[in-house]
Amino acid sequence: MSKATIYDVAGAARVSLATVSRAINNPEKVKPETRERVLRVIEELGYKPNAFAKGLASRKSTTVAVIVPDMSRASIAEMMNGIADIARVYKYAILLYILDHEETPEEDILKEIVAAQVDGILYLNDEITEKQYDFLLKIKNEYQIPLVLTNTIYPGSDEIPSVSIDYEKAGYEITKKLIEDGRHNIYMVSTVRKYMVNDLKEAGYLRAISEANLTPRIMRTSGRISINTEHFNEYFKDHKVDGIVAVRDSIAVSFMNVARENHVKIPEDISVAGFQNTKYALLARPQLTCVDVPIYDIGAVGMRLLTKLMNQEDITEPRVKLDHSLVLRDSTINT
Amino acid sequence: MSKATIYDVAGAARVSLATVSRAINNPEKVKPETRERVLRVIEELGYKPNAFAKGLASRKSTTVAVIVPDMSRASIAEMMNGIADIARVYKYAILLYILDHEETPEEDILKEIVAAQVDGILYLNDEITEKQYDFLLKIKNEYQIPLVLTNTIYPGSDEIPSVSIDYEKAGYEITKKLIEDGRHNIYMVSTVRKYMVNDLKEAGYLRAISEANLTPRIMRTSGRISINTEHFNEYFKDHKVDGIVAVRDSIAVSFMNVARENHVKIPEDISVAGFQNTKYALLARPQLTCVDVPIYDIGAVGMRLLTKLMNQEDITEPRVKLDHSLVLRDSTINT
DNA sequence: CTGAAAGCGCTTACAG
DNA sequence: CTGAAAGCGCTTACAG
Predict the structure, then answer these.
(1) Does residue B97 register a pLDDT over 50?
(2) How much of chain B exceeds pLDDT 70, in percent?
(3) Alpha helix (H) residue ranges in B237-276
(4) In chain A, which residues have their Cβ closer than 8 Å to the Cβ of B51?
(5) Helix B196-211 × helix B167-180 angle, to 10°
(6) What does A91-115 look like in DSSP terms, one character per residue?
(7) For position B143, which CATH number holds?
(8) Are B284 and B245 members of one domain?
(9) Is A315's Cβ below 8 Å from some Cβ in B?
């Protein structure tokens, strides 16, 4: 049996194709006996409705598009697991779009997504320019495709719902933790590239620093180890530092390595903290203190929110913020 | 303009819808002037062919399914980047299926994939049971859907093409390297769970060990840090060891941490090596010697192979093996 | 080179 | 509760 169609099922079950369709999609509208008979035939024939025909006729695809910047970022990958698990529960298929920065204009990809007739879009890119945001808004409004930002927050507008943690607060808390360690020269190590969430972490850092009447010091470097290692070595030759809050665990670990090579002791001389609570933090020595970001949950809740939107349910809060926590380990003093 | 259809374009360009279709799909069959006119209208109207109608009518979806076990494994994520980049070149969309071990029977997922009418399937799961393989074969033969195994090798059969490196050889080479370090009690640290590729790494290890007339010692533990840390601590209390080949970088790093905590020096006392050349290897201290697996390329070549299959092109070699290399760092002696 | 028409496999009012 | 029929938006022989 290559592919059984609805006609084959209808024939074998001696009903019309309309009844087959109902037995599948609106079982309660079909007499139990008929339904059973039809379902049995479906089973026997291994029938599966052709997704294209279904999508064309119903104008619903039960497919969502997930747009991600770069799969190999640890946070994105784990978020995908959360998204996929919830998508499965609600029977949505996932069309994956990985952005290749700059090469394919994002507009083209979005057009493609519209053509694919997805029922909803999950946007995981953590840097959004105003232009991109406007484009997303256009998609939402013109094409009426529900849209959720996951682990991204667009500061200006609430129009597109988002799910993340309160990064500003997290940045504030982790900085405060280092201040409690008795540190006075605390640097935030952020990225050269602008990411919305890193801006928020920086804002939280600045709030804590200013509250404590310390001098804010933000260093921007690269997420690439080979680059930031150099950079750390150079930069901290003539900078006094006793505390580091890095926007990513891996950057914090990278810093710790450089510190050790310069015979600086952690946490005795410098307290170090990161963000995310990845495997990097656990494998590092000393183990890294960091903000635990519930990244799986962010994906799951984002997908769940999208299903609500696709069902036209009312959303009470357009900006969902999940709880985070501080994980204290050996890279800070923790008195 | 919500969604322009082919009729809108045909009307505005004063041609039939057949001509519009041709202008898009077989431009050479349309008179240049007509074509230009049509294309201009398409541009103006922002027309994109409805993917469902197109799929239904043409019985091709220009979509491939990618089946993965767990997104958050570093190798899978990076492979996805390679897959996506090539998919884009050939205009294929990606339907992502993440397996939730045990919960949803894989058969159901595969049925779903068949229903989705994908043109091809990339299978990234690195453990395949005989039953699963038979099922994949059935899909390939009954439904005629091209299939490629990526970074997985099924030992028994060549029927489904695969792309990977020569893991047996890599296992052999890295073990040999430790033997050259002068090690005699070399353990392979593998996983409790059976993965095809780890079997191959073990086979290579065994070959090198037996060639050198040493005693093979395979320890199986978990990829989870909390578990394997305990396990290492316990196990190596009464086992002499001077060399470790771990099947994954992160396991090797985890071992190095335990060793250091037991005041064992690396590489002086024990040479340690891993597999993959991930960021873990670079962030570790000492930096980890390992087999470099061109994981992005494996994804890219796998996708490329699939496009050939989908175009009915002939495949000369069903088992593509990409080159790997040994990256020597400070966790081995490297005389 | 172009158009009219059939058909892809479903869903969904509309009757009955 | 069930069936006949229109329609979803395309592609593709078949004529011309």
Answers:
(1) yes
(2) 99
(3) 249-261
(4) 115-117
(5) 40
(6) T-EEEEEE--TTTS-HHHHHHHHHH
(7) 3.40.50.2300
(8) yes
(9) no
Residues 6+ apart with CB under 8 A from A71: A77, A80, A98, B71, B77, B78, B80, B81, B84
pLDDT at A80: 94
Q: Would you say A254 and A236 are in contact if contact means Cβ atoms under 8 Å apart?
A: no
User: Which residue's structure tokens are 């665990």?
Assistant: A249
**A72 with B78: Cβ contact below 8 A:** yes
Write out pLDDT tens, residues B195-242.
888 999 999 999 999 999 999 999 999 888 889 999 998 888 888 899
Domain shared by B300 and B156, yes or no: yes
Q: Evaluate whether B78 touches A71 at the Cβ level (below 8 Å).
A: yes
Please give the pLDDT value at position B148.
95
Query: Is the preceding peptide bond at B32 cis, omega within 30 degrees of 0?
Result: no
Interchain contact, B250 vs A116, CB within 8 Å: no
A202 and A188 within one domain: yes
Q: Among A3, A116, A250, whose Cβ lies nearest the Cβ of B51? A: A116
> Are residues B78 and B296 in contact, defined by beta-carbon separation less than 8 angstroms?
yes
Instruction: Report the pLDDT value the prediction gives residue B162, as an integer from 0 to 100.
Output: 94
Distance (Å, whole) CA B86 – CA B106: 26
> Is residue A335 in some structural domain?
no
pLDDT of res. A101: 65
Structural domain boundaries, residue A131: 63-164+295-322
Per-residue pLDDT of A79-100, as tens digits, reads 999 999 999 999 899 999 998 7
Is residue A123 one of the residues assigned to a domain?
A: yes
B107 in contact with A, Cβ within 8 Å: no
C chain positions with any atom within 7 Å of a protein CB: 1-5, 7-13
For B100, the closest of A80, A85, A100 (CB atoms) is A85
Asked if B88 is an interface residue toward chain A (Cβ–Cβ < 8 A), one would say yes
Q: How far is B271 from chain A (nearest CA, A)?
A: 18
pLDDT at residue A2 is higher than 70: no
Residue-by-residue DSSP string for B146-180: -EEEES---SS--SS-EEEE-HHHHHHHHHHHHHH
CA-to-C1' span, B32 to D16 (A): 21
Residues A32 and A74 in one domain: no
Q: What is the pLDDT of residue A136?
A: 86
B299 with B278, same domain? no
Please give the tally of structural domains in chain A. Answer: 3
pTM for this prediction: 0.90
* Radius of gyration from C-alpha coordinates of chain B: 25
Measured at the CA of B241, the angle between CA B238 and CA B247, to 5 degrees, comes to 115
Q: Which of A298-307, B52-61, B249-258, B294-303 has the lowest mean pLDDT?
A: B52-61
Residue A52 CA, nucleotide D3 C1', distance (Å): 24
Q: What is the spatial distance, in angstroms and rounded to an integer, between the CA atom of A56 and the C1' atom of C11? A: 9
B312 or A210: whose pLDDT is higher?
A210
Indicate whether B315 belongs to any domain: yes
